[in-house]
């Protein structure tokens, strides 16, 4: 690695053993110390960080390149990428989310300069290493702080997720997402709305569905098998029994730990992380169990929105989250239609309920 801080050192054929040159080298060492203000901050260690694995196809807009790969094959794809490696990709659906993570990190470093409890983004892709130069150029162009790459040259990156201590994996590929979930890693398929809603640059906003996302699909199974009335009866009878955890409970827990670092500095009302529960449950008949479950886990949610079956899209348009997680595709579609970056969590009983058109839509990386 070369370091350029605006000072050029050269021997010009002179004897570096002279005292003047030893002094010059000593000055250079001082300039190049890790504490130099112009140096990027070191990334957190993975075991202490909240690690987000993001695929290149959701981080950046690679639709044209994906078409070349699918229609013309790998060699033409690599050739195209190399020929265009100085042209940065435009932002993809995960871009604003990652920028918000970096904004939170900036605030955390101000309060805890030595802390390694930060967000750590890993760009994970099965691209060939040749494509890495274009990805690096793109990251530098957009002034992103992404130091960790995982380029697997055609192999699935899923096997590396645990090695990176991944807390959340986002991809455009539903097959890889299911593989990650089977490994016990929180994961979701990210979709691109045609027009993305403008979101906050200073506060990370994350919205979750409840059943089969934060919670298990226990209650949803009752609803699917026996209908709404039996579902209400079941929830009333079990309102003091916490639901089992769902696939994204751990990610909410990780967000909560970082939130508490701000609360500890008296910044609860100015916290740059805000979480939302956006559920089709109704508050009076089935909301109690959801809230008691979160309390039993020791987790807080900033806002809980019980919609009683109403569409989620309009409410999400008001919230303007950077990311929304749901286990049912029609909620994902409704959110995307309103400009929200929505992610499908393929978990639970809802995935076994066949509906016309779902399988085709899940194989696409964008909603048209």
Automatic annotation (TrEMBL):
Please provide one cellular component term from the Gene Ontology annotations of this protein.
cytosol
- InterPro entries on file: 5-nucleotidase
Q: Give one GO term, molecular function aspect.
A: nucleotide binding
A GO biological process held by the record = nucleotide metabolic process
What start and end residues bound the annotated signal peptide?
none
* One matching Pfam family: 5-nucleotidase
Positions of the UniProt region annotated as Disordered: 30-50
- What is the recorded name of this protein? Cytosolic 5'-nucleotidase 1A-like
Native source organism of the sequence: Cottoperca gobio (Frogmouth)
What is this organism's lineage?
A: Eukaryota, Metazoa, Chordata, Craniata, Vertebrata
* Gene that produces this protein: LOC115027512
